[in-house]
Amino acid sequence: MDIQEILKPFQHFSVQRVRLGLERMHQLLAAKGNPHQQVPIIHVAGTNGKGSVCAYLSAVLTQAGYRVGRYTSPHLVDWTERICIKEQPIASEKLQQLLLQVIDAIFLVEESPTQFEVLTAAAWLYFAQEQCDIAVIEVGLGGRLDATNVCDRPLVTIITTISREHWQVLGPTLADIAREKAGILKPGCPAVIGQLPPAAMAVVKQRIAALDCPAIYPELAVYLEPGWAAYQGRKYPLPLLGDMQLGNSALAIACLQILGQQGWDISAEAISQGMAKTTWPGRLQWTTWRNHPILIDGAHNGAAAAALRQYVDNLDRQAVSWVIGMLSTKDHSEIFKTLLRPADKLYLVPVPDPRGADPQQLATRAQSICTKLASCQAYLDPIAGLEAAVTDSENLTVLSGSLYLVGDFLGSKW
After folding, report:
1. What's the CA gap between 296 and 279, in Å, rounded?
2. What's this model's pTM, rounded to 2 decimal places?
3. Hey, what CATH topology would domain 3-277 get?
């Protein structure tokens, strides 16, 4: 039985059906000896930037000589990407074993857990069994009721950014969403807070004050030269692309400074070498497809789309051929308004997921938003859409709109 088959009984296809809550998770972990209490963690929430921050922290702490667990979601190509130790994905056979161990304990839980809860429990079990020194844990959805939010005393909590996403579950306003993400903050535990909109920042600061959290609010890092940045005078390599990494890297460096104050041995050399080795695929990643250079980015909300558009604008290209597929749960109008410009070409394709939006409906929406597109076409097959886009060698080709689409591209024989 492979990983997909093991997890299938716990699958939930729509964000509206996700059953947030901590009771099932606590019961499940208790049945396995509370492995989450055996490994100190850094807990990372936010709308965008979580994965990059986790990648920076994991790479630097590994370079510093620690046995580092990392738990992130979603995966791009394989389930094993979500659970890593020392930058290495868990072996498929080991993940299967852990999942079956977790499932064996489900009869002790009053209500059947979700797929994400089963995976999260497997990650905790793995990190405890492998005696990790520290784990970097990314929130799956929101924060307050997310399955990862079961640790009472994180070493550091980080909130990267807050924008409008998963409003169907977290609430319609930025303040509502911020309230959920601020749920990872714990009494007296250090917090590192990114650049947030005023409405979100007000909620987060109120929660920080109520919990008496020592909090810092890092300024953006600054570019020094291509591939290098500095935060508070500390120079470091910046291998990940896009201006958003000035904020993400600053959050990571600030967190590492706090860990240093707590007694963790993280040298300047470890920071420099670890940052240099950081990778985070599927986000502003250049690749070649059938001898054509293309840019891939999983921009799946307005803020991520804005970061992608800014990067593209800095390339100073006259027009873009967009190959886009999106989930039906996303704010399609906001993403189109952010990405599209007159003279751009748009190729709408399906996402290989049951929640994928209909390409023809997306085409209709896009044409109503940007009436001066050079062309707008819908395709039933993503490969056909990408083939059509790359034939226009004058344009930059960008594949975007969903991490599921980007993951399918990276993992298949398109």
Report:
1. 14
2. 0.92
3. UDP-N-acetylmuramoyl-L-alanine:D-glutamate ligase (3.40.1190)
